[in-house]
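Many introductory courses stop at the sequence. We go one step further.
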Amino acid sequence: MNQEKTNFTEQAVNKFIEFVLSRFIDAERLQVRIKSNLKQLKRGELDALTIQMSNFLMQPNLRIAEFQLDIGASAVNMQRVIHRKIELLHPSEGKLKIIISEEQLAAVLNSELTNSFSDKQDEIQFQQVSCDLRTEGAIAFHFNWLLAGKIKSGTCITSPKIESNSNEIVLIKQNVVGQEPPTDLVDYAIAKVTDILSLNDLGHRGTTFNIQQIQIAAGKVTVEADANIEQFPSG
């Protein structure tokens, strides 16, 4: 009977946390799983907490395919929960895994580059960029742009590398195929993707990361990191 009560209570807490998170998180699917017992739950203590999301809006114009955050032993302020806020009583350790498709990277780059480099007054006008996440681990940016009214195209191929301090992923230029894309376009794309893969936006929400691994398969990139969670986003 106690196990049945615990399971029922866990499910109720799962749904409640999902409800609280859904107030300020935009995702196609949001699922929460906790592991605890009745006595621990009354004190707000959790053995484990997992948050999974798909098609999560990580930042403006960027949705990511998959997001999973696994948090170890933690404790939440039950008084705050009553007021629909999730507040950790002490920092907790966890692991994060995100998966982003090449189409999702291209969508955010096209949106931002269009806003920044499409002025008809400029000599060079941005037209379009696509991303190619290759099985050998490279990230290629295919650019189309207008120069003096003529359409030009070229590809910059980069290779991702985790910095020695594990706090950032950098993209190293390898070579160019076709015409050399304008430096401003290339630098902007590299800086933006570096920011995304380094989890900088998520790090501004009360969590710090040490990146452990980056994997590139055909059409998608996976980043895995250790996480120190000081607080949940408050919306």
